[in-house]
Amino acid sequence: MMDLFNFIAEKNNFKINHSQSLSGGDISDVYLLNTSHGDYVIKINDSDKINIFLSEQTGLLALKNSNTLRIPEVYNVGQFTSYSYIIMEYIPSGDPKNDTFKNFGEKLAKLHMHTSDAFGFKSNNLIGTLPQLNNEHATWSEFYWEERIKPQFQLAVQKGLMSLENIPSKEKFKQAIDQEFCDAKPSLIHGDLWNGNYLVDDKGDVALIDPAVYYGHPMMDIGMSQLFGGFPNAFLEAYKDSSNCAKSWQSQIELAQLYYLLVHLNLFGTSYLSPVLRIKEKFLDA
Questions:
Q1: Are residues 237 and 257 in the same domain?
Q2: 140, 243: one domain
Q3: Which of the residues 46, 117, 192, 210 is marked catalytic?
Q4: Which of 160, 166, 183, 257 is deepest in the core (most CB within 10 A)?
Q5: Are the CB atoms for 187 and 215 separated by under 8 Å?
């Protein structure tokens, strides 16, 4: 590892005073580098995994260009011998203020106001360690089925986590989505907005990290935020007040969570099968 750090120090013309391992490195090793030019975060993986970091750089830049929430600056993505790496701005953590999560909800609504002509993104990326396809489609129901739900159901069957009979028909699924998401517009979303992918900085503002960006339905971010907790009610209420949430937003949240539950099923096993089948039965087996 020291040979990589020495290479990075020489490439960036600074001296590394010390390094410290950081938590949250489920996919890559993460370090805080204290240097003569300040503090940086570096993520490290095998050299053939550089696409992880290139996708992260692309997603962070898309979010940063929205000028809404704080997003860490990416300084460099590269390879050295057996390593690939990404060097980013270090954002010191702080304590939330009284209006932190209200502001978070309002700014997320502003992020979602950045729209495109089609659902998808200019490049594929990852959700966790799984590939996430972003081929463009004109409708949300077509995109959500072809690029999100169908691949995850098929993977679960391949892994022996469910039977082929559990996969809903494309027609029934699209009908349910068209009914519940009649307000669908391609909005810029974080794509993996659980409580481990935001932090509160030293000024009490929220910063987003580790995105899985694409132009999708805004309820994908809200659905993920509500799946495992960690988002105070002030966040959701401010978001609802600042956006055009449909009357069926609770149903939209559940159908958005279907994707993330399928991802967790494929990553972590059958403890996630029951909630997947519950949502499927509620909306697709009626």
A1: yes
A2: yes
A3: 192
A4: 257
A5: yes
